[in-house]
Amino acid sequence: MTTSTEQPPTVAGPLDDGELRAIDAWWRAANYLSVGQIYLMGNPLLREPLRPEHVKPRLLGHWGTTPGLNFVYAHLNRVIAARDLDAMYVMGPGHGGPGPVAAAWLEGTYSEVYPEVSQDEPGLQRLFTQFSFPGGIPSHVAPETPGSIHEGGELGYALSHAYGAAFDNPGLLVAAVVGDGEAETGPLATSWHSTKFVDPARDGAVLPILHLNGYKIANPTVLARIGRDELTDLLRGYGHEPHVVEGSDPVQMHQAFAATLDRCLDEIAAIQRRARDEGVSERPRWPMVVLRSPKGWTGPAEVDGLPVEGSWRSHQVPFSNARDDEGHRRVLETWMRSYRPEELFDADGAPVPAVRDLHPGGDRRMSANPHTNGGALLRPLRMPDFRDHAVEVTEPGTGAVEATRVLGRFLREVMRQNMHDFRLFAPDENNSNRLGDVLEVTDRTWVAERLPTDDHLAPDGRVMEILSEHTCQGWLEGYLLTGRHGLFSCYEAFVHIVDSMVNQHAKWLKTTNGIPWRQPIASLNYLLTSHVWRQDHNGFSHQDPGFIDHVVNKKADVIRVYLPPDANTLLSVADHCLRSRQYVNVVVAGKQPALQYLDMDAAVVHATKGIGIWDWASNDAGQEPDVVLACAGDVPTMETLAAAEVLRGWFPDLRVRVVNVVDLMRLQDEREHPHGLSGAAFDSLFTRDRPVVFAYHGYPWLIHRLTYRRTNHRNIHVRGYVEEGTTTTPFDICVMNRIDRFNLAIAAIDLVPRLGATSAHAREALVGKLIEHRAYVRTHGVDLPEIRDWQWSGARGPVTESPGPLVEPESA
Amino acid sequence: MTTSTEQPPTVAGPLDDGELRAIDAWWRAANYLSVGQIYLMGNPLLREPLRPEHVKPRLLGHWGTTPGLNFVYAHLNRVIAARDLDAMYVMGPGHGGPGPVAAAWLEGTYSEVYPEVSQDEPGLQRLFTQFSFPGGIPSHVAPETPGSIHEGGELGYALSHAYGAAFDNPGLLVAAVVGDGEAETGPLATSWHSTKFVDPARDGAVLPILHLNGYKIANPTVLARIGRDELTDLLRGYGHEPHVVEGSDPVQMHQAFAATLDRCLDEIAAIQRRARDEGVSERPRWPMVVLRSPKGWTGPAEVDGLPVEGSWRSHQVPFSNARDDEGHRRVLETWMRSYRPEELFDADGAPVPAVRDLHPGGDRRMSANPHTNGGALLRPLRMPDFRDHAVEVTEPGTGAVEATRVLGRFLREVMRQNMHDFRLFAPDENNSNRLGDVLEVTDRTWVAERLPTDDHLAPDGRVMEILSEHTCQGWLEGYLLTGRHGLFSCYEAFVHIVDSMVNQHAKWLKTTNGIPWRQPIASLNYLLTSHVWRQDHNGFSHQDPGFIDHVVNKKADVIRVYLPPDANTLLSVADHCLRSRQYVNVVVAGKQPALQYLDMDAAVVHATKGIGIWDWASNDAGQEPDVVLACAGDVPTMETLAAAEVLRGWFPDLRVRVVNVVDLMRLQDEREHPHGLSGAAFDSLFTRDRPVVFAYHGYPWLIHRLTYRRTNHRNIHVRGYVEEGTTTTPFDICVMNRIDRFNLAIAAIDLVPRLGATSAHAREALVGKLIEHRAYVRTHGVDLPEIRDWQWSGARGPVTESPGPLVEPESA
What we know:
Chains A, B: Keywords: Lyase, Thiamine pyrophosphate. The structure is a homodimer. By secondary structure, chain A is of the alpha/beta class. The first copy, chain A, folds into 3 domains: 17-376, 3-Layer(aba) Sandwich (Rossmann fold); 397-594, 3-Layer(aba) Sandwich (Rossmann fold); 613-796, Rossmann fold (3-Layer(aba) Sandwich). Chain A is 35% helix and 13% strand. Chain A has 25 helices and 22 strands.
């Protein structure tokens, strides 16, 4: 153990004796509480020798990283108080959960939000017992931890979360510890480049602290084994000026770290002054710290003859037999007593003034910083009227409008009115996704070199584009979690890159729904475009509409999926999503010119209901239909309407009902999703026994998964994306996946027995159309003009190629 | 346009006039063919002025990166010939698809594998027309492209694929172009650290070429805008010695690039000599190239008054109206003629000798290098007998075996017999996943600094561990695609990190199944462990069994999912997977001590059938059961058996059938998956009308999606993971998700009407057990001993807490 001696030797540095003692006492207290959380369920103040029943039967937690996290916390507390900083702390090594819990308890925040965990011996007993214990709290930094916006489960997002928090918060300092394990992940490795996207004039500062603990679970870390020169090169290459603090002697380390922290904060202040007062717009070289300290610092040096401190054996629980093995128990007691708890806690078990005095008070406590409970700071967006951007629709199923371009105009106005707490994020796809109009009121964020020929790049731009979906997502999460608003637009195929991130965010939302002191935050909004049905540009390797499947596995109360069929519906959906809280909203909408169906009033009604019969496209008025054609998604909707028209041409008295789905969760049972339809409501749309041909945007099986409990499920036949594709035309992709108008019409014909002999005739003709299409497209490289230019004419009578009324009388 | 003049000025460099002319001619030819592919469908040799009908109606493709890719290709050809190199080429900017297609055609490979695309004018016409055309080839580097192992759809994996190809191929040079767009992605950013995992003695070399084109779709790139010093720092920080080649004048660039390439190859040769001949084991500083050239190099400088060459406007198709706009068409013709096709192609349209002479012949052609068609080199693994590692099982449902540790022993023997073409990959989890025994015969790969205390680290280790799932996956893909074997072990929760990568690999497999000249490669094998039911260590944020859902959306002919219930079944499944070809095999198995059910012979039969009734756990012999208890996954299997025991205790004459599923795809309809059961076979297991309580490892909806067509689907009630959890005990996680024995038994009781009054009694008792459990676990932090220590005793009569035979006579 390398715990400091009672009489610290004199080491040169900025700390006087009092400061040194205060920081060391705070650190010892946090370390003591951390070990206690991992090991103990009784005797929290060591009032008596440790007995087996004081030790938890299951020991879970990560000691290795924790003393380093606590060390940084203690030092940040000094400078927050000294400089009156507004600071928060993102801990990349989130498995060091005992650390921030200990800190929040020492600062009093923990007892404020969880009164039963009071600042006395019974509270301490609860604090220790609850950690990684059934009915208690997780072993990692989690939503339950005051002061955290950063789920400590999956590694890689510490820096992108930190920058997300810093954007538009000019007064905020975000200290971000990056573990050297985490540093090996891809998302973390590229997030260092956030230095090119943070504006020293408008945004806050991030102070990265690369913590070289040296070891992961069972391996050394790469960055700890490349030598100091190469590491310095790497960090300078990321745009930083690294300051190295290295060692294990606490006193020396206290002085060195304090000096380094002062220097970094002076540099940050100077950078911000230059940018804000002198108008310097060049990208600065931001300072950062490299902290190289032993893994499991201050823990037992050796257990059972094997090295523990400074080795991978410290990663989790350094020794695990403390309940049953007296030797281990003695090691534990010696270890805990080495922090001298009798100096740190008073007779009641509360932290003594010498410990309490280090940390700042009120909102300046990092565990109570309001930015870390972003919902408390959240202000609703000022919302322009989306109806102002309505597309005129005189006849349904006509026109050629790029839906996302219309959305872009609306987003431009949202941006214009919310220039301090709204941003757009995209992996180099903002303009490709047709949201370019937003650049009329802001620029793309860019703090790296600029050239005169550049297009809308500026340090204070609010459209954030880097070719890293991970970084976009991480920035946005950090931005939302600190109480702001945003939207992530992404090609549908590439959004799988952030599957595990959205997963973690959705679970964060689910958990915070059960934590009363966590205020609701703005929803995480996705616009997925360049979708699977219009991937003619890129080819098969890109095509995957399964992000929807991924998100609907999460808890129903945090997931919403919308498939607006046209521009006006998209506007209404977007307005709703931007106003909403605590959801992951997935909106799928095409960016290519497409038919429009609903005028604004109809679109608002339809988007609000989320599902409905399109009377103008149906001819089953007042009767049960012969067949229901259902659709969800813009391309499936168009093909469904075209199929309805084809059917009407061949079978004028066939009663066809067209049902369009905007809100996918309406399909689910009301017991499974709050948006779910009741059984009766579902039956009134889909009937109890008529055939349903359902054309769906994504993988068809999802519709079955959502509807398997429905009365008429047995008759629901779903067409969707079945993993066929290559670089081909828009219509040909539909044909390859059998979701095109002709295949849908054939499916309907095959399901309605009463059509009799004509059905064979019609079927043959439709197969002929498919053959004609394939030949044409392979020769000309484009779709048949009649398909390319098709518009709905259902309301104006049968289409010309119809052979007229050839329907047989209803037969068996 | 910056195309070289006919009389190149004298520029100092290693190339003599003849070499310079040859390289430039080859480059011009490749560029000409690239432009032709993007634009033309007629008049391929410009025998006449371009007319509208010569131009494709839809212009798709990416010109911007292509001339740079072609430039590198031309230069590599020179050094391959000069040094007799065994070299292949990974093109990160895969959208530059026309480039490698042009190269393969120039080298003759294209016509060898696609004879209809011959080396003459009709072949040229086909070459041009097919590109990004319906029925043709994709616009990016794809499986269809000879010489490629790297799908050019989603960016980020060029380097990890390149290193995967280089491992265990000491004679191979892998040139890897990294686009500066791709360089912003997380996976690419961390894959530079592969320098710490490539052994100069045993492995081949990777030569990264960072191509600073300067622009993405609509933005500049980060690495092009950070200044040369910072970029150099960054690349040195990654462990490289960067050599910069910068400019736009072709002659100067030819000389500079040739000199740089010579220098890099000399350095590589020296590194390998030192390692191989002198035994130097320190990590070398590998050379790399930074190529800064204009985007759309040699393209039109300006179109319609706007800059094109050297701007983001070159990214895709530099101007799009060439069919209809005469001005644009003239620009196109001038552009294409600037390459002087009359010097490059003979009267028939074949490349003239001056062009053909540059490239090497036979297998030395990069487009024909056998490593890029890995199946052709693939040798089956030498397989030890997995039965040698069988766990003895005398009574089913007893014992406490870590299944993956048993697998580790088998893998150790597989490794021992295949020390040149088999590797294990894991994100720092190999030992945690209980595969540590493999370290008895090899080490972890580690070329960075080593300390005496390190555990099994060596440059020539074959267990590859970096805390980057992306890098593990990319390495393994590269390794498999070049004809070797491997297995990726990963915590189940974290495998979502590579969702989009496995997606792309599965699509590659699907596509290659339709390409006759592509030989089958070894399957991509996943072992998912530390699974959702045993995440007591880490907590809720980690828990997600949805990777299975993700993969089953891919084509049925490339996806296999196995859920072996115990160690012997796992051995049999692993043996099968390691022998298989062209699949993505997902194997889910726990690593904690667990019950064993089947002896080796039974396990082989069960794994081979993939699904079956466990007679020893059933008591419905010769009759229809009252209820079917089905299960898939180790924990659900244990809970199901315990539920069967509970039911038997309460209702001795209740006919219970236990069905266990190993091969999940057996559930699907035989028309949908080749492993699918026929309707009759399914009905014989699950009955046509009896209630089924199905305990499934993952999200329950997947079972519905797989079985919705089955006769008895309406009676299948699935329990699975429903997104509940926190840090708690193994059994409590089951209770939270209602998949525990008591809840399963209650579900069964509720579904069998004939149980009558006793059912209320039993139900109440079981609910009591749940309450008792929850209270106990919250007090003691561990599961009730009777649950923790439970073993199957079904064969030995009713369990003690049974109230005895209280069953009512069968009622309505």
